[in-house]
Write a structure and sequence with these properties.
Length: 919
Amino acid sequence: MPRRSRTSTALGIGATTVVALALAAPPALAGPAATPDPVPSLVAGQDTAAPQLVTGLAEPAVGSPADAARAHLAAHADRYHVDPGELAEVGSESTADGRRTVRFEQRHDGVPVFGAQYLVHLTGEGAGQRVESVGGKYFTGLTVPTTATVPAAALRDLALGSVQDPKARAAATAEDHGLVVLPDGAGRLAQRFTVHAADPATGAPAAREVFVDATVGVVALAYDTRAPLPTGGNAGSAADGSAAAGLEPATGTAPDAHGNSAKVNIARLPDGSYQLTDLTRPAAITTYDAGGRDEMDFGGGIPADLPPAHSPGPDFPASAGTSGATDASVNAGIVYDFYHDRFGRNGLDGKGGAITSVVNVTQDGAPYANAYWDGKKMVYGSGGPNYYPFSAALDIAGHEMTHGVISNTADLAGMGQAGAMNEGIADYFGNAIEVTARGMSMNDPAAALLGESKCRTGTPQACADRRMDDHRTTVDDYLGGTVDNGGQHLNATIFSGALWDVRRTLDPLTADRVVYRALTAYLTPLDDFVAGRNAALAAGRDLGLSHAQLRTVAAAFDAHGIKPGWESRIGMDSRTLARNLSYSMAPPAAGGGHWVAMAPAPDPVKGTGGTRPDTTALYTGSTTGRGAPVRLSPDDGRYHSWPATDGTTAVWKAIGTTAQNHSRELLAAPLSGAGPVRSLFLADGTEPGSPQVSGGDIAFTVNDFTTHRTSIRLSHDGAPAVELPLADGHHPDDLTLKDGYLAWTESWQDGQQYVTAPTVYSIAAGKVTAQYTAHAAPGAAASTASSARLAGGRLLWLDTPDGATARASIRSGALDGSGVTEVLAADSPNAPTRGGSLTASDQAVTYKVEGTKPAGGWTNAALPKLWQLPTGGGTPQRLSCDRGGQDQPAADQGTRVVWLDSTPGRTDLVVRDRAAGTC
Ligand SMILES: [Zn+2]
């Protein structure tokens, strides 16, 4: 339920590994967005030959549902491309109207494929049995070998190593779930773990699903969960099976959280006392009062010494109300009845399994104002001075219990769009159950609120966690990336808002049946929003909705931007060259039609189970986007960073990571990969930096730790690097090398003044040919020069006036020292942010303008943007209208620029060939 997801950062794990699977929206073989397809129809799968959805079938099917389903898939191999021998039945559902869904999990050489489920839907009995639709995710391109090559102990260490906080890591445990195949391209063989650790910030239990590549030994995927520990205490099933023996159904009274007396279904124990177990339904509903114990005590199940909420007589004491126990029990019954009466469902698992709630937990000695489903039970905080016990809010109970239904059906993964649908569907039913129980109209202004009734004080509007009529859409509001497990709560109302609109514009009962059937019969763990839309439409067809009703359903998804290809409609006007590149926003390099950029390089295991820290690697590719990126730097356990390139050669810095090897080395390699990586400079008590390359020339700086002096080294035409003379106390920055000229920003202390001077050196002449002191003119306002770039036969730089001015000007100077011109004045519209960066080709100069934080907090649209103008001067234009953050531009040839863009919610390297103009 929580709006503030504690679990998203719970383990302090580097955010780079979340949502590593590239599972985007399926391409449209689907019909026009607003019109449901005529039947039969087929929606193609993404990255697979197996269709995502085939509807409108009426093909005879003989035998048990599972046999009939397998036979159907085998008989139509040309349609499905599914190997029935690689399917394992993982759970099937039947409905009151005689429909059966057979849910298969895909295996690859016998190894489960993460999130890959294929479903066959049957109707009719005996000889009249028919397959009416088929769909899900089955990946036909998997070829990865299924033998792990990394030792098991090393895989476990890598999983534990994903906990960044050292203290949390030391106490962490890794529960091994065996091998899985991640359905990424040809597949990735991974060992799946649930890592349990304490949240370093709060000490609360936290869990993380971690998938370690079993062939190369890197964390391939990870996301946070609330999974309980595998052992310790009982699993919270005291009312289940033998533990329920000896209990007799009874009725009594108990005060609820609001102080009213409620009738409760309870159980009489052999000794004549009573406990809060409701035995009136096939699924026993038991409630435990934690009595203020920490929620951490329940991570492994119910502690053995804690009995269910208890009373000597049938009238429960006041503590049943203040703890929230009465409400948890009563609300669990309401939720059970809703699912049973509306859909014929027997409990959370559909099989009448025990339903367990724990109330009155605390966190760090304070009342816990939250609630969650931990995979097996509901855990509710006692609220506190501002909140009632969370179990007292029916929509919260409905939300958490719906997570239980989801984990027993579609099992939507807790990350990305699947995670947002998991939260969104939990919101939908939590809300629907409360609105139904209260007899509210869907047009009641309070009908859309979630969690609004938990507050002792404040208005429902102010108290609500979320509202389902917030009109958020994919294109305008989707926030991806690494926070909140890829936005599982942040994006929930985009999806639940569409469902809620269906409920409001159709009729509640029909809508509930559509959503329930979509969840139980069509959705699979890795589905995205568009698959969710298709699932709802397919469910609607199954349920006999009219074309007008189906159009209403489609229109609701349209209104929230959930239609095929929405990601491309986010307004990205750039081409993506590489995804999920960098968490550090390290600057990429570009030139001669090629880019070089740094990406995280998690640790490949070396030796026997020992691991090293994650490092960084350099990749290169074409700025036209042709071909796949290739790794440029050696896999040697060092950080590789700070690249520069002229389009033929890359130069960069490598930093050792071990105690024995803290070396600093400058390296060079041809982008073609057709030559060796060679060492340019191996530091000894010095720090090399700012490497540059142009043709046969290479330049860099060397900072001597002892003398604090920084010098410039230049290697001309492959000759050994020589030191260029600089005056005592003069310091070079921003090296730039092009076509026989080297330039830098030189700075020194002159009396009270700190002087900065863009400086040009002719390699052929062997001397400085120009030096433009930033405020040489007497009486001129003091300013600072930075970010010097050689381009278009001149030197360009940023000139930032001292004082409070927000902007810098762009200046250019002749290489022979004959004069300076102003390319863009600091007071002109859209001038660069002071201290920003500048990049330039012969044709265009590109720079960054920082966004202004809106009063209500940062939004995606308010992040920094890039602007471009001709190198000789002109009016700046927006380089790209991408609405997210744009940073670290690197000019290639002409007006083409690559940069790091966070519009899709992760850091991608993207490119545009020319400025977009006005946005
Ligand atoms: Zn939730």
